[in-house]
Amino acid sequence: MAEDIKLSATRIGSFLQCIQRYKFQYIDHLPKVPSPAFRLGLAVHESLELAGNIWKEKGKFTKTDIKKILDKYVEISIREGIEDKQVHEEGLKLVSKRLKKFDLGKIIDLEKKFGFNSKDSVDIVTEDGVKLIGAIDKVVEIDPETLLVVDYKTSKTAPTANELKTDVQLSIYDLVASMLWPNYQRIILCLDMLRSEPIYSYRTIEERKEFSEYLTEIHKQMSNLKKKDMKARLNIFCPWCDYKEYCDEYKKACKKSDYKFLATASLSADELIKEWETVRSSKRILDARERELNMLIMERIRDSHTNLINNEEEVYIRQNSRTTYKIDTVFEYSTPEAFVKMVSGLNKKAVEEYMKDNPAVMDKIKKDIQVNYTAPFLAVKKRKGIINDESK
Fold it and tell me: CA 128, CA 7: separation in Å to the nearest integer?
């Protein structure tokens, strides 16, 4: 394998999730088809980088600046080919929303590149000689001793506290920041969830050292990887893989119809978990394939203005209507007792926003909180200290 391997969060994730995907991306350098989410991320990041540069210079936004930033988003959205109008408008709202809450402190750097072969990039090498590559969205000085490292995220879901604490990208940024700005005693890590609010984490000196050692082991396994070991492994991430169209295992799973399930009574723990993961991954793949076919069929029907017909069936687009009642009107013409019975649930976010605007009633409302649990479900986590080594 290539000797000059530079580690990034994306490269590490690809290596751990599927060796064949890693091969397609980093060894064969096969082209990938950018997803709508990827294009949205590019448009949002580049427009917020412009916003950061304006703020760094002026410390505020004028109406002209805001228009310039939003125009930049529109320009990049068109450049990246974001066809879905809803996705385009969504990104515009995300940028507008963040411009209203931009003052986190003194901006030190924006889109700080490391590991690239360019003039605006710096080289980062760990104590064990591992080279790193990436770009930090924003670096902010909170006070003379505290640095805030910000990573913009356009994803719809936020990581849990445990996921945040072990996030590889944030850990890389923490390590890089400690090397680039060693005069700061504290480094705070921020995932700026543009759809909601920023969330924060940190790494202790010991955790930083352990992560550096982890990078050394990952780098060693990548360097020792043999072509015979580069086999596809179906997993729950397959439907979102940018290289799934190259993967024979994925294609086979999409076409597979004769699923054979092992008898569970005699399975060992290892066999039981493997069977569960195989079935779970196959279901995800088939669900994603169904959504893809649904989109293609709907587009074909809309373009041709005719239903899709084969020898026995006719596929058409159907929409169900749903009647809703305006809550203000129902409240006006019903008694308070009857209204409470008709309202079966509350919008948690709306209640929390109301409490935020009316702090006097917050304690009273919180005294009567009801906690409900979902049905139990299985989850997976990595065992501490275990590295997924598929090269052996």
Answer: 13
Could you read off the pLDDT of 211-256 as tens digits, one per residue?
999 999 999 999 998 877 777 766 656 766 777 777 777 777 666 6
Q: Specify if 150 maps to a domain.
A: yes
Reported pTM: 0.65
Of 169, 193, 224, which one is at a domain's C-terminal end? Answer: 224
Where in the sequence is the domain holding 171, given as residue range(s)? 105-224
236 found inside a domain? no
Does 316 map to a domain? Answer: no
| 280 burial level (CB within 10 Å; 0-12, 13-18, 19+) | middle
Question: Residue 278 domain-assigned?
Answer: no
